[in-house]
Amino acid sequence: MRTLCGLLLIVALGCGGNSTPPTPEPKAPTPADAPPAGTPTPQPKPDEPKKEDPKTPVVPSVPAAVWEPDPAKHVVPAAPPSGSLGKAAFAPQQVEFQTDTLTFRTIDKDGNALKTMSVKLLEEQAKTAAGGVKLVVKPDDPMGKVPTVGVELPPVKAGDLPKLYEYPHGYGLTLELGKREKGSVAGRVYLSLPGEEKDFLAGTFTADFVRSPSEPPGADDTPFVQGAVTVAGAKADTKVAVGYVGLVKEAPPVDSLVMPFAGAGGLFGRSDNAKPRATVYVTAEAADKAGRYEHVRLPAGKYLVFAASDGFAPQAKWLTLPADGKLAHDFALNPAAAGKLAVKAPAGTTGKAQAVPADDSPLPPEVFATAASALGLDADVRDGVARFERLAPGRYEVRLGELSGTVEVKVNETATLELAPPKK
Asked: Which PROSITE patterns match (predicted)?
C-alpha cells in the first residue's frame, strides 16, 4: 500500500522588392501555323469533376487531439489514447476498469506502474457501469456531482514518494464505456485537466474489466478454479500462499500469491502479470473463518492447484480444466493432518530429492521441478536418506537425479521409499 503524499486539489477557475520580368508577347502564328479557313475556333472545355478511385476509401481528416477543456469541442480520435501528463508525453500501455475506477497506466519493462491517470465514478454510476456509461463533464460542474480524476507521477529522485493529485471537478471530460463482454469493455475518452501544464488524454481503447472481489467469477472468467481456504489454529500474522502449476501444451503456466490469511475490511490481493490469467485471494474475515481464492482465464489443461502456509503440510490437487471449465476445490490446512516420508538413496548419492503429488502419467521434467519448487517439497540427502517432515496424505512421486519412485503417505505415519539405480 502506497502512502499518500503531496496531495493537491486543483480547481479550475472561470472569471472572468524585386522587379518582375516582363511577360513575353504571344507569338503570332505564321501562315504555316494557321488553321485552314473555315475551321471553328476551339472553345475551352468546362472543368470536369475529378473521378475518385473506387478502390481507395475516402477517410475524413480528423484533427490531432489537443488540450481542450470544453467538451463541446471534443473529437475523440480512433487511435489508442495518448496525450501529455507531467509535462511529458503520455501513452498508456494498460487500461483497466475495476469496481468504480477507470485507470490508464504506463509501465516499465517489469510491469510496474510509472504514470497513471484515473477516473473514479460516483457510486450510482459504478453500479450500472457493466451495462455501459456515457458522461460529459464541464469545468464548471459542481464538486460531488462528477467523478474524481486522479493522477500519480513517479518520484523525482530515489527515496522520494510518488506524487498524487486529485481533481474533484474543474476538468473537461467526454467518456463512453460499452457493455462488459468477455472480461473487457470498449470505450472512448477525451479528458483535459486544469492547470498550466495542460495535461490531457484522448483516444479509443479496450479496457480489462476487473471484477470486484466480492463478485464470484463467471462466464467471462472461464476456465477457472475457485474455492475456500481454512487454516486450523491460524494467528494474526499467519500468511497463506495460493497458486497453480499447469500441465498444458505450452510452457507450464505457474503463479502464486502470498497474502495474510485473515484481515478486516475485505482485504484482497491480485496477481495478473500474466494476463489474461489472474490469481485472486480474498482474506478471511477472522482467523476462524475461510478465505477465498480463484485462478481465472487459464488455458484449458491439467493443473496442480495448491494452498500452503509456513508450519503446515502444503495441500495440492491435480484438476483437469476443459475450455469452459468452472471448477471448485476447497483447501483445509491442518498441522494434525500430515505424515512423514523417508527416501533412501543408493550409497554415494548426493543432492536433493523432490516430491510432487503423483499424476496419472509421468510428469515432464520441467513441470515436475516447477511444481516441487512451488510447493517447497525438496529435501537434502544426508547419510543416504532424504527426509520430508510434513506431507499431506496422498500418493507422491519422488525424483532424485535419474532415480524416481512413488509412495503413499498416511496421516501420523512415516512412509519409506527406497530408490534403486535405473536398470541398464
From this structure: PROKAR_LIPOPROTEIN
Give pTM, 2 decimals.
Answer: 0.69
Residue 379's nearest CA partner among 407, 417, 351, 349 is 351
Q: Strand 403-409: give its sheet, edge to edge.
A: 403-409, 394-400, 352-357, 378-382, 385-391, 339-344, 414-418
Residue pair 372/365 in contact by the 8 Å Cβ criterion: no
Residue 45 has a CB neighbour count (10 Å cut-off) of 6
| Assigned CATH topology for domain 219-333 | Immunoglobulin-like (2.60.40)
Q: Lowest mean pLDDT of 91-95, 270-274, 375-379, 419-423, name the range.
A: 419-423
Mean pLDDT confidence for 338-351:
95
CA distances (Å), 111 to each of 97, 114, 115, 252, in order?
A: 17, 9, 12, 21
Burial of 421 (0-12, 13-18, 19+ CB in 10 A): exposed
User: What is the residue whose three cell numbers read 496442480?
Assistant: 304
Give yes or no for a cis peptide into 276 (omega within 30° of 0).
yes
CATH number at 339-418: 2.60.40
Are the folds of 219-333 and 339-418 the same?
yes
39 burial (CB, 10 Å; 0-12 / 13-18 / 19+) is exposed
Residue 12: closest CA among 201, 202, 153, 196: 196
Query: How far apart are alpha carbons 252 and 230 in whole angstroms?
Result: 27
